[in-house]
């Protein structure tokens, strides 16, 4: 896993009108670091625990780039003294690209992986485009420092991270803030752990919302080891005991920010627990996947549920003993589906199912139901009505 530190550096306003105020920052483990630029303290703190593979520092041409020198041990600062004063002097009017590159090169001898990024803070697209281009494809632990810079910059960077999590393997996210305004003798460092929890809840709930896959969101709600339960549901099994345990645990969630999520999941799992018959559970899953725009799954499930119900109308209880349901039902359809609309509906449903599954359209009359979502929706809804008629 790669550890990526993202910092923003601004201009700052100390007594001389330029640069940040020298501050002693105190971390949760009691360690303190005195520095003007909080990112330096954070880097040194993190470096004691883990390797930082990349440290991206975003700022403008007038940012206090010279303050980064506090990251380096005192023994080596003299090696950078001449360039430090050059950087400090240029910051007032705007540091040149060459000087910033030279500063980065010298700093990298002591801070491996550091990159200084001169940006236009109002170029909002840059933040996300930079992350997409520069973050590696490995699993990532992102540490976001939101202490300095224009107030809107951390917000844009945060939302950019939320977007790129769909394309990058962001495993963990921590946010740090050096609370200068809460300073007594020392300024406390606030690690906003709750953001990481919300990040995980958001990511896993989105997966559940669009695919129906619930083990990840349940894990983030504190309910472990549900992968096999999900697998059994997908295989049209009824893991009743496990579903009861899951719904009971969802009921026991007390934190109000989690209960809404828990209630939504329970509401969608409840029909699978309540429905005794396989075909009823298949219909519930068909409706579930239809609402999530997973049309092929919904189509297969509703077709299979209707064929099971048709077999039962013939008095067949051991439906698994019928090797080829389609052939078995072929000449019995008028006996089961007594109204013309029922026969027409089933014929279209079966044809659409076969065409979608096998990837070809042999009957041109089916074309509209495969190419037009609205026509498919009409077919799906009329098939639900057909199913209910068959139950009576």
From TrEMBL:
<dbReference type="InterPro" id="IPR013383">
    <property type="entry name" value="CRISPR-assoc_prot_DxTHG_CS"/>
</dbReference>
<protein>
    <submittedName>
        <fullName>TIGR02221 family CRISPR-associated protein</fullName>
    </submittedName>
</protein>
<dbReference type="InterPro" id="IPR011742">
    <property type="entry name" value="CRISPR-assoc_prot_TM1812"/>
</dbReference>
